[in-house]
TrEMBL record:
<dbReference type="InterPro" id="IPR006184">
    <property type="entry name" value="6PGdom_BS"/>
</dbReference>
<dbReference type="InterPro" id="IPR006115">
    <property type="entry name" value="6PGDH_NADP-bd"/>
</dbReference>
<comment type="pathway">
    <text>Carbohydrate degradation; pentose phosphate pathway; D-ribulose 5-phosphate from D-glucose 6-phosphate (oxidative stage): step 3/3.</text>
</comment>
<dbReference type="GO" id="GO:0006098">
    <property type="term" value="P:pentose-phosphate shunt"/>
</dbReference>
<feature type="binding site">
    <location>
        <position position="102"/>
    </location>
    <ligand>
        <name>NADP(+)</name>
    </ligand>
</feature>
<feature type="region of interest" description="Disordered">
    <location>
        <begin position="295"/>
        <end position="314"/>
    </location>
</feature>
<dbReference type="Pfam" id="PF00393">
    <property type="entry name" value="6PGD"/>
</dbReference>
<comment type="similarity">
    <text>Belongs to the 6-phosphogluconate dehydrogenase family.</text>
</comment>
<feature type="binding site">
    <location>
        <begin position="74"/>
        <end position="76"/>
    </location>
    <ligand>
        <name>NADP(+)</name>
    </ligand>
</feature>
<feature type="active site" description="Proton acceptor">
    <location>
        <position position="182"/>
    </location>
</feature>
<protein>
    <recommendedName>
        <fullName>6-phosphogluconate dehydrogenase, decarboxylating</fullName>
        <ecNumber>1.1.1.44</ecNumber>
    </recommendedName>
</protein>
<comment type="subunit">
    <text>Homodimer.</text>
</comment>
<dbReference type="Pfam" id="PF03446">
    <property type="entry name" value="NAD_binding_2"/>
</dbReference>
<keyword id="KW-0560">Oxidoreductase</keyword>
<feature type="binding site" description="in other chain">
    <location>
        <begin position="128"/>
        <end position="130"/>
    </location>
    <ligand>
        <name>substrate</name>
    </ligand>
</feature>
<dbReference type="InterPro" id="IPR006183">
    <property type="entry name" value="Pgluconate_DH"/>
</dbReference>
<feature type="binding site">
    <location>
        <begin position="9"/>
        <end position="14"/>
    </location>
    <ligand>
        <name>NADP(+)</name>
    </ligand>
</feature>
């Protein structure tokens, strides 16, 4: 057995990850259910490093030095369980099984429990950055035991994206912590993209700019605070023309798809009671776009532009207001995402270093951005901060942008351009900073119809008013 690591599942992600590992000088045993993929990989890229091609699972396991580190990169869900079941009887105590697929973190918790009972280490490893990242340096979020990270960590840190000499790979915490953080990361990516899409729609529908002109605006934005992979990519996509001569964005069907990680993030946020309004609106906006029959019915009944005067704001002023609204909404989306990670960590007893998450997302992944350095600094200054929103740098950014943000949301409401993420982020901000919330009325109503009790502002205790009786107040505890 001469391989230091093994990888099974050589589709797009696995094959690129295997090449990346081999290119970094690690001897890697490779395996795939359909052997042709293994043969193809070694034929095409065998000269990039030291691959040990194997056909059967027995041969694969036998090729790896003990304690074995085995990465599974197959379709998430049942296929992952099938591969684990096939592997386990062939392994020895102390071996490390790593799931690098997009598993739901609760599946990872379940699998870790089952394998640790057999004396094996199970790692849930979130890998971000798609095909390109897998090959040239992804962002890697590892969940598992310290022992597992001692073996796996150095290899993964060597193949991860590197930013300022720091690898974009870390030991997030035990069992499901890595996949949980990867999930929230994907949720943040949903919000980020939705905010960009709303900005584009506003500039196009309100100012009448062409995709090319909007692409130039994004290119300019990429030179400032908003500098990020997604903004850069937006400039690139908007500048691109289809072979037909039409702007590319105009020939793409406007129904956004999703693989489910946004939905998982929102479901988990509901369970944890964390308001992730930006991510939720982004997820629902994708669903709405796909509801083609409802959209068609609504288009027939309601004209697409609202009644009344169409306003034409000053171009430069409005472009700058949209930029400010985008930045402020982005701060909110990230603040919410980090809240969810903190809440998840608390719920599952994971000790997650939040600043480290911002650090390892600076490279390799889709949400890489200059902005993440500010988040890293905020956590370095105050590791237990209550919300990112109120830290010095972000508070200033939001204060500076709030008037523009309101103007953009008001304009979108008047002109009928839907901006669910901009609007809900502003509502979240206003909700947080409000002296008194109408939640008081909700508590009063709940006590009236269901005797759900309430607390008072002026003294301790739990109270109930006899609404159907003499309306006297009872102290419950
Ligand atoms: P796919 O999700 O398309 O999975 C295909 C691979 O799974 C093939 O190697 C296939 O083997 C294997 N497989 C499927 N069912 C079984 C089974 N029952 N037993 C054994 N092997 C099986 O591949 P991707 O490369 O796209 O993704 C791999 C993982 O990485 C997934 O979990 C995905 O969610 C995750 N991921 C993907 C990203 C992306 O951008 N694509 C980004 C980050 C993570 P065979 O060749 O024999 O059919």
């Amino acid at each position: 057995a001469r391989a230091t690591i093994g990888l099974t599942g050589l589709a797009t992600m696995g094959r690129n990850l295997a090449r990346n590992i081999a290119r970094h000088g690690h001897t890697i045993a490779v395996h795939n259910r359909t052997t042709q993929k293994t043969t193809d990989l070694v034929e095409q890229f065998g000269d990039e490093g030291d691959f040990v091609a194997t056909e059967s699972m027995e041969e694969f396991v036998g090729a790896i030095a003990q304690p074995r580190t085995i990465v599974i990169m197959v379709k998430a869900g049942d296929p992952t369980d099938a591969v684990i079941d096939e592997l386990v009887p062939l392994l020895d105590e102390g071996d490390i099984v790593v799931d690098g697929g997009n598993a739901h973190f609760t599946d990872t918790i379940r699998r870790e429990k089952a394998l640790s009972e057999k004396g094996l280490h199970f790692v849930g490893m979130g890998v971000s950055g798609g095909e390109e990242g897998a090959l040239n340096g992804p962002s890697i979020m590892v969940g598992g035991s310290d022992h597992a990270y001692e073996h796996l960590g150095p290899i993964m840190e060597s193949i991860a994206a590197q930013v300022d000499g720091t690898p974009c790979c870390t030991h997030v915490g035990p069992d499901g912590a890595g996949h949980f953080v990867k999930m929230v990361h994907n949720g943040i990516e949903y919000a980020d993209m939705q905010l960009i899409a709303e900005s584009y729609d506003l500039l196009r529908s309100t100012l009448g700019l062409s995709p090319k002109e909007i692409g130039e605006v994004f290119e300019e934005w990429n030179g400032g605070d908003l500098e990020s992979f997604l903004i850069e990519m937006t400039a690139d996509v908007l500048a691109h023309d289809d072979a037909s001569g039409e702007p590319f964005v105009d020939v793409v069907r406007d129904a956004a798809e999703q693989k489910g990680t946004g939905r998982w993030t929102v479901q988990s946020a509901l369970d944890l009671g964390v308001p992730v309004t930006g991510i939720a609106e982004a997820t629902f906006a994708r669903s709405l776009s796909g509801h083609t029959s409802q959209r068609e019915a609504a288009r027939k009944v309601f004209s697409t532009s609202p009644e009344g005067e169409r306003e034409q704001p000053d171009r430069d002023t409005f472009v700058d207001q949209v930029r400010a609204a985008l930045y402020a909404s982005k701060v909110v989306a990230y603040a919410q995402g980090f809240d969810q990670i903190a809440a998840g960590a608390e719920e599952h007893d994971w000790d997650v270093d939040l600043g480290m998450m911002a650090t390892i997302w600076r490279g390799g992944c889709i949400i890489r951005a200059q902005f993440l350095d500010r988040i890293r600094e905020a956590y370095a200054e105050e590791p237990d901060l209550t919300t990112l929103l109120t830290t010095r740098y972000f508070a200033e950014a939001v204060k500076d942008g709030v008037d523009a943000w309101r103007e953009v949301v008001a304009t979108s409401a008047r002109t009928g351009v839907p901006t669910p993420a901009f609007s809900s982020s502003l509502a979240y901000f206003d909700g947080l900073r409000r002296e008194r919330l109408p939640a008081a009325l909700i508590q009063a109503l709940r006590d009236n119809f269901g005797a759900h009790t309430y607390e008072r502002v002026d003294r301790e205790g739990t109270f109930h008013t006899l609404w159907a009786g003499d309306r006297s107040e009872q102290e419950m505890s």
